[in-house]
UniProtKB/TrEMBL annotation:
This is Glucose-methanol-choline oxidoreductase N-terminal domain-containing protein. It comes from Salinomyces thailandicus. Residues 1-17 form the signal peptide. Pfam families: GMC_oxred_N. Belongs to the GMC oxidoreductase family. GO terms for biological process: secondary metabolite biosynthetic process. Residues 28-275 form the Glucose-methanol-choline oxidoreductase N-terminal domain. One of its GO terms (molecular function) is oxidoreductase activity, acting on CH-OH group of donors.
C-alpha cells in the first residue's frame, strides 16, 4: 500500500513539475535575476511556499552534464566556453601591456560550473568587521548555522591521509545534511604533503581546517565534490535539480535583464535586450 502511494505521489510530482524554459506567466510573486549560487539558493527557499510563484532568469544556458564540467580533472576546460562570460580587463601596464581574462560563470549554476571547486569560508575577523560597520546579524557566530546548513561534509577517508596532508576537520563547524556535497578527492598528490613541510620550515603555519574561520596559513581545502561519484557538486545540482517537481518554480535560460522598475517608475529607455541561442524566446 505504501509503495503504491509513494509511486502515485512521484507520478503527481512529474505531472505537475515545470520543465526548464516552460512558458511564462504574465506576472510572478518573485522574480530573481541570475541563476548562480545566490539566485538558485533564493529560488529554492522562496519556492518552498507553494502559495507563491517564483521565476528565475538566467542569461546563460543550462549545462548537459558535460564531462568538462563534471570531472574535477578537467577543471579549466570550460574557461572561454559558452559557460563563461568571456570578460577581460583593459590592457595592464604592469602585465606586459596586455589584457587579462576574468572568468565568470555564464550558465545555470554560475561560477560553480567552471571554478576550481575549493570549498572555503572567510576568516572570523572578516565577518566581525561587517558587524563593526553596523551590520548586526552578520557575525561569524550568526552565519555559522547557515554555513553548516549548506553542506553535506564527508571527512577525508582515513586518519593516515589526514595526517599526511595536514587535514584536521572541526566537526562542530561542518554540516552533514545540506544540499552541497563537500568532500576530498580519492587521489592526492604526494607533492602536496611535501609542500606543507616546506612551508612550515619557512615559518608558514598550517591551518588544519580553514572552514573553522582561522584561515591564516597553508591548508588542504575540501572541494564541492560528490564523495561517491567524484563529480562536481554545482549550485544547480544542489539547489535546483532536487526541486524540479515544484509546480511554482519557473526557470528560464537565455534571458537578459536590462531594466528593473521600482514602484512603477519608468526606467532608462536607451537599453537593448539580447537573447542566447539556448533561449526559447519567452517574453
Amino acid at each position: 500500500m505504501f509503495v503504491l502511494l509513494g509511486f502515485a505521489l512521484c507520478i503527481v510530482r512529474i505531472v505537475l513539475s515545470l520543465p526548464l524554459n516552460s512558458p511564462l506567466l504574465p506576472s510572478y510573486d518573485y522574480i530573481i535575476v541570475g541563476g548562480g549560487p545566490a539566485g538558485l539558493t533564493i529560488a529554492n527557499r522562496l519556492s518552498e511556499d507553494p502559495e507563491v510563484n517564483v521565476l528565475l532568469l538566467e542569461a546563460g544556458p543550462a549545462d548537459h552534464g558535460e564531462s568538462t564540467i563534471a570531472l574535477p580533472g578537467m577543471i579549466g576546460d570550460e574557461i572561454g566556453s559558452r559557460y563563461d562570460w568571456n570578460l577581460s580587463t583593459t590592457a595592464q601596464t604592469y602585465l606586459n601591456g596586455e589584457p587579462r581574462t576574468i572568468s565568470q560563470g555564464h550558465g545555470l549554476g554560475g561560477g560553480t560550473l567552471i571554478n576550481g571547486m575549493l570549498w572555503n569560508r572567510g576568516g572570523v575577523g572578516d565577518y566581525e568587521a561587517w558587524v563593526q560597520l553596523g551590520n548586526e546579524g552578520w557575525s561569524w557566530d550568526d552565519l555559522l548555522p547557515y554555513f553548516r546548513k549548506s553542506e553535506t561534509y564527508t571527512p577525508v577517508s582515513t586518519e593516515e591521509l589526514a595526517m599526511q596532508f595536514s587535514i584536521e576537520a572541526d566537526a562542530d563547524v561542518h554540516g552533514y545534511d545540506g544540499p552541497v556535497k563537500v568532500s576530498f578527492p580519492h587521489f592526492m598528490w604526494n607533492s602536496s604533503a611535501v609542500l606543507f613541510e616546506a612551508l612550515n620550515e619557512l615559518g608558514v603555519t598550517t591551518a588544519y581546517d580553514p572552514n573553522a574561520g582561522l584561515i591564516a596559513g597553508a591548508s588542504f581545502l575540501p572541494l564541492n565534490l560528490d564523495p561517491a561519484l567524484q563529480t562536481r557538486s554545482t549550485a544547480r545540482t544542489a539547489y535546483y535539480d532536487p526541486v524540479l517537481g515544484r509546480a511554482n518554480l519557473w526557470v528560464s535560460t537565455g534571458q537578459y535583464a536590462t531594466r528593473i522598475l521600482f514602484d512603477g517608475r519608468d526606467g532608462a529607455i536607451d537599453v537593448t535586450a539580447s537573447q542566447s541561442q539556448d533561449s526559447n524566446s519567452h517574453g
